[in-house]
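Fold this complex.
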Amino acid sequence: MRAPRALRTAGGALSAAWLVFLLLASVTASWWLPYQADAQDPAHALAGPSASHWLGTDDLGRDVLSRIAAGSWISVGPALLAVIVAFGAGIPLALLAAEHGRWVERGSSRFAELLLALPSIVILLAFVGAVGVHPWAIMTVLGVLLSAPVYRIFLGQAQSLRTRLYVDAARVNGVSSLRVNLRHVLPAMATTIAVQAAQLFAISVLIEAGLAFMGFGPSLPSPSWGGLIAAASQHVYDDPWLMVPTGAVLALTVIAANGLADAVAGGGREAEPAVRRTRGRAAVPAAPAAGGPIDGMLLDVRDLTVAVADGPALVTGVSFALPPGTVLGLVGESGCGKTMTARALPGLLPEGVEVTGGSVWFAGRDLAGLPDKDLRAVRGREIAVISQEPMVALDPMFSVGYQLTQPIRRFRGVGRAEARRIAEQLLREVGITGARRMLRSYPHQLSGGMAQRVCIALALTGSPKLLIADEPTTALDVTVQAEILSLLRALVRTTGLSVIIVSHDPGVVADLCDEVAVMYAGQVVESGTVAEVLGSPSHPYTAALLAANPHVAEGLPVPERLASIPGTVPAPPDWPTGCRFASRCSLATAECAAPVPVTPAHAGGPVVAGPVVAGPVVGGTVVGGTVRCVHPLSSPAPLPVPHHAEPGVSS
Amino acid sequence: MNAPVPALSVQDLTVRYGRAGKALPAVDGVSFDVAPGETLGLVGESGSGKSTIGKAILGLQPANAGRILLHGADITKASLRQRRVTAVDLRVVFQDPYSSLNPAQTIGQTLAEPLRVLRVPGDQRRPRIGASLAAVGLPADAAERYPARFSGGQRQRIAIARALVCDPQVIVLDEPVSALDLSTQAQVLNLLADLRESRQLALLFIAHDLGVVRFLAQRVVVLYRGQVMEAGPAEDVTQRPRHPYSVALTAAAPVPQPAEQARRRAAREALGVGAAGAAPPAADGCPFATRCPLATDVCHRDRPPLVSGVACHHADQVARLRLPPAAA
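Structure:
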């Protein structure tokens, strides 16, 4: 529920309490007021606060407290009416316009623009002139005028909510249009409605008081706040106190309405943890396991641990090494920590997640211990990153040429014309014909495949040694994916670039990678060359992942059923001390409950002490494939196909 | 003997977005039938019009020409309100399991909604919801929970349960597994295959992934820029494609055998299929002509007719483009 969350903040609770108190006080005023609102006592006119008159008396000796309380309904009620009219007209209109498309939307939007163009104070005064002083009617007119901004705000929101698939699903299911709006569209707008209503209420209270101050409020004996302030202004020199109580109540009411709006608006954001960015400072460089990086490796990751600040670890003890000019694939299901691992390398972890152990040796330096300032110099120049959503990575406001030449000038220190020449060159390198035309285009003019090519060109502006590609083809069509994979492979061949690619698709890994590390629940469970790992998997998880894949080469039969892995990847707090895959593994035994060491696998021979190393024979040290399993599959591996283990759903 | 009435029949469907006459059609004269118990795969890249066809069938996008028949009854112009009566057998499962369930409603409320529309009495709703959840392998108490408690694969099961709860005969599946991980994708694909068998469902399976389509579909229609390039049995289209675009599609999907994939990649790069997003084709010619390695003048000039399931002027030459079969 939203309201209680809004009330959990002190401001929200106080604001709501004041408004409720005010409403109760105004409704019940006749029962508890010490004096009649217009009971005169000329003997005590213009008296200050006293025991008998807590807030003093006015020029006719009437009790100010009683008059404020009695006048609160006539002051607040019409403002409330204005809000109700504004929302009662604006929201249904917005819902209708969002539902019925262009023509209805055009008509109602032009009408709303007309209302917005009218000067509201002039309209209100003209209405008073023509019809007379009727506070409720005046505020109804104000409500109609305010319905235009309400309409404008909620039209956009309703339009975006209507693109949600559950709205389409409800429509296909024959749910009536009224019910679709009431059940699926309106509830999602509730927070915004509450915020806007509270703010409009504050505005309406002020306008109402302003009108009453000018004499267009409730007729004189009735004690509206605006009228009280107007009366007090007559005595501003001989009894300044008279202004204070009414002014304070009015101000408090407006502040409370805005405070409540803030609290409601803030309630929606509260879910995000309030964490600070502590990247680098908190990184504890692990004891250098084998005394520094392995020679000849571009990247040597040792025992990398990534954790939520004061929370569970997301990645534990991940180690791999990467020689220059090779492509490493990190493969696994979502929630296995492969993206976190990749993003930890250049220090691009999300807020509140940090490297808590291990080392990231890159070109002779341990990046895990570097402060963010030094990492910034590494990012872009030495390590570049491309992401899954090329459209998000490009700024829609700027042309491709601008976005490419800016980093080129910064990284390479060249002039405008030279940067443009290099940009054209880079675009040609990523296979874009018509580079000159491309430089003038804007991101919205590009297809997904073209945008990803531009992103790769952008990543190349700093001539990086390592490119981290996080699911670079997942959002693309299969033919475009094949083009991008060919492009990356060509770049590796021609420029000697190293690539780490994160993917959930073993097919992509088979196509592009030399080495692969299979990740499960924050650990590398198997690593080695793609031929070894994908050809004869050692770990049951790798085998199961491959068996779930429906893609087979030409001429081979498609399986009758796909082997699926029952259940889902456990969440980080639920990771057992033993094998993390055991609960889903068809080969699990009692031994799997104990911590599982990393052992050599495939034809890799002995592993260098401790870390899992993916990489060929380098500098005399024999490094090879590894597996983290007590009973690895023998080679050639029989695929452990679970027999009707599904629909296996952990509840 | 009469030919059996197809569960779903689409005839010469044309859909245009925007003002009539100005925009190129998103769907251009597409026809196909789906028999009861059959799965038809609708394959193509983004922009091929495959999702638009699904929307037109579901009444979410008006058709400009052509007919859509459900069990022989014309529902082309039926409004969503009329479809409450005429199209109760037609349901949908969307791609995105996160946006297709209302986060503010429990699973039970989400599943009850179509039953309420069908005026199923309140006391019968609960058992039907439970049965529907059981059919997709979820416990009955899932009905009490909110979507946020479920993983992507489980949500997709819930979306399938919502489609099943009114015992439909035709389900439009719009990319139902492309947002899922491999292992969950396998679970959902197996589930769909089981349901098709046990309930004799007619499934229109819209996907961009030919490997997935080959697993589930008996027949496949390959779309490019709103037009049918090739149609036929799934094994034929994926194993012996007769259209250059089908060849490009099959060659592009990577297989997880590195040696095999290296061979296929080399073969694919040698195909000479132009990059996606190249120059747009001539309005009157073959839509694939600008990317096709076999294209000649006639391809840019005349649109090839769909003859025995292939729309290609050079269909007789396609066999030499095909990737060689894997060494067994």
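Strands of chain B lie at 8-15, 27-34, 39-43, 65-70, 73-74, 90-93, 170-174, 202-207, 219-224, 227-233.
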